[in-house]
Amino acid sequence: MSLRIRTRATTTTAALTTATGTVVTAAALALSGVAPASASTPAATTAAATVPWSASHATASAAGDRWLASGKLVLDGTLTNTGTGCYSVWTRFAHDFVVLPYTKHAEICGAGSVDFTATKSYTYTVTGTLRVCRGTTDTTDCGPGVSITHWPIG
Q1: How confident is the model at residue 4 (pLDDT cuts 50, 70, 90)?
Q2: CA atoms of 14 and 7, how far apart (whole Å)
Q3: How far is CA 14 from CA 54, 129, 139, 147, 152, in A?
Q4: 30 φ, ψ to 5°?
Q5: Under 8 Å CB-to-CB from 136, ≥6 apart: which residues?
Q6: What is the sign, positive or negative, of the torsion defined by CA atoms of 67, 70, 73, 79?
Q7: What span, in angstroms and rounded, lies between the C-alpha atoms of 128 and 10?
Q8: CB-hemisphere CA count at 13 Å for 77?
Q9: In this predicted model, what pLDDT tens digit does every residue of 106-119 receive, in sequence order?
């Protein structure tokens, strides 16, 4: 007794619309010797889409943008204080169900502002929050955390 395995080929028809409105199929491109654009051969390079974020606590506030670049979450921002105390910016991430400790990215004592940039390896199973806290040594007195891994749709 022999066992036969039957396989079925699946074909996909892709179409490309040119600048003049002409529709060209992948089959026509193959016949002409031109390879269609695909994920491995991008047609154009686009800039990273940025998402604004902001957080505050008492007389301090932090604001900036975040984006994804080469598998990393990039935070770019400014911590500003209008009072006399010390404040700091902290992030905390969770990967799957593992919660990581807080990490400090910026601190300021007295009035003024300081710029900072932070990066973190990122996959879609990572969640993170950012907080502004009073003091520079711990996260016991902080404002509400804001999500830095929530992505708008559209």
Answers
A1: very low
A2: 22
A3: 42, 41, 53, 38, 29
A4: -65, -40
A5: 86, 87, 88, 104, 107, 109
A6: negative
A7: 41
A8: 30
A9: 999 999 999 999 99
